[in-house]
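Example (one chain per record):
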Amino acid sequence: MHVFLLILNLVGTFVFAISGAAVGVQGEMDLFGVLVLSFATGNAGGIIRDLIIGSLPPAAIADWRYLGVSVLAGIVTFFWYPLVERIRRPVLVFDAAGLALFAVTGTQKALVYGLNPVMSTLLGMLTGIGGGMTRDVLAMRIPVVLREDIYAVAALAGAATVVVGYALHLPPAPMMLAGAASCFALRLMAMLRGWHLPVARSAQRPAPVKPIESEKEKLEKS
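Predicted structure:
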């Protein structure tokens, strides 16, 4: 299970790092900026998770492989971005894959550390959305999770699948794969179908402000 979690974490780090690096390339950052964004996107969620559950030092800092796959993803995206761009909507697709993998691995690690199912689900969601939020903040964009897109809800669905399997004493590896698949499918369907959560609307819309007439316009009317 430890090896399986490590593999999923590294794969999730790689695909999340690609999404961060792609945003950096689109924002015309230099190589260093792209690498910083790729590392932050790929590892912020895992670092937050490990700090909360007391797994110190965080795996992303203690294990050089997390830095390695993040740098690799950043370099590949920086120098061969046209290849990444050929994939339809590359940033969102890689972001959905990273969200799915991190949501289930974060949930499983929280369960291993003794958290109750509800808090493990929430921590799995936080692990999934942490990297994307960090990426968007560094790129000066409104985080996707704060908009109407189904993002955190998809992470919750994947995390809940893992928790249900844990409660029913089912093998964790198949349930993690099922949870990742459900999260990824829900996120993709939301993007393709335009599904979104209700958007807050103000109770009263302000009346339109009438433009101030100039002295010349007043004289013409009179």
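Caption: The chain has one domain: 2-197.
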